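SAMPLE LOG
Freezer: B-3
Tube label: C17
Construct: single chain, 421 aa
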Amino acid sequence: MQNITERESLKGLIEVLNHKNKELKLLYETSRFFSTTLDICELYNKLFDVLRNIADLQDMFVARFEEKKRVIKYIYLRSVLEESHIDVSSIPEIPLAPEGKGIISEAIRKNDTIIINDYQKRLEQSNTKYHITNEGTLADMDTEKEYIIESAMIVPIKLNNKILGFITLMSKNKDEFDERNRAWIETMVNQAAIANKNAILFSEANIKAKEKFKLELELKEVTREKDLMTKEASGRVKENMKIISSLLQFQSDYVMDPVYNEYFKIARVRTQVIALIQDKLYSLDKKGDIDIESFFYVLVPFLFEKYEISLNRVSTYINAKNIKLPLDKAVTLSLIVNELITNSLLHSFPNKKKGNIAIDINEDESGKYTLAVRDNGIGVLSSNKGKPHSFSMVLVGMYVKKLGGTFKIERNSGTKVVVKF
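STRUCTURE (predicted):
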């Protein structure tokens, strides 16, 4: 008799050990799967299948709780009536129910797992109800499906003691959930909570990456449109300047007075310089600040050519190393240099006199710039009012004011104009 009792006791112990071994194996396999997926639907599909090994489940709801908004949002639903999860996108956000109302709301307030063995009675107290039909779809009303839910377990999804949401397990059996399977179910849900958080972080990162990619595409499109508009505007300005230059050339052919003819010539070159600036500087804008020295090496030979003065007769020296300016300042500075070089070429070296012109610009420690344009010619006399160069100095004054700077003229063995801005 004693041997029979011992055998029965040993048999019972073996069954318990086998059951524990099965649970541990299931936990290991499930945890391993959870660590390899970042898809929330895959995660909860696996959890549903695993929990059905622990309890006789028919339905499983997963809801997210947003503490700041105090709302519940269903994100997943699975039923034995369907092989895959059911679309819950039509379920709106549900406000937290008042005290004594709402099964999920009660679990949130208790911040703990709750077991319900009179589910249908408790469901009557809820303001918001959704039912699963025999076709495996959602309905606002009960349509007499092939089983009736009698018991439920609501398990909080927690991470660092903070409620992220809840999993509702439903069974057609009364008293299906108890303290015996509660600990095991909570363990599985905790494993899912960690994987769920990783999946959410991955999803958010993925969404941000897509948004960033979309913004980058939009930025490229805006940049492309801007470049096209700039190119079109630049082309129009260049064409307009050519038309104005041609009109001035045409009109000057009928002017016999050399002084007025000089007016026309300077005005014509001004329009051509504006076209040159439009062509060269605006095309460089997308590359950042403008390298001033590079452009001066384009502008100065252009002026020599237009005024038919040989570089062998009047030599030039340009020192503007490492000077880079924003487009608007570079344009204004170029217009100033145009006027000053034009003055020197036309008035400082009469009768084919030889000489030199120097352009020097530097930046001090405070970020202020100093431009000096000097020549060793006969000098520009201030009494020559009415001459073209007098108007040039008026323009220089206007451009300097636009830069927020000052300028002065020094006459000593030639002419030197110093601009500070």
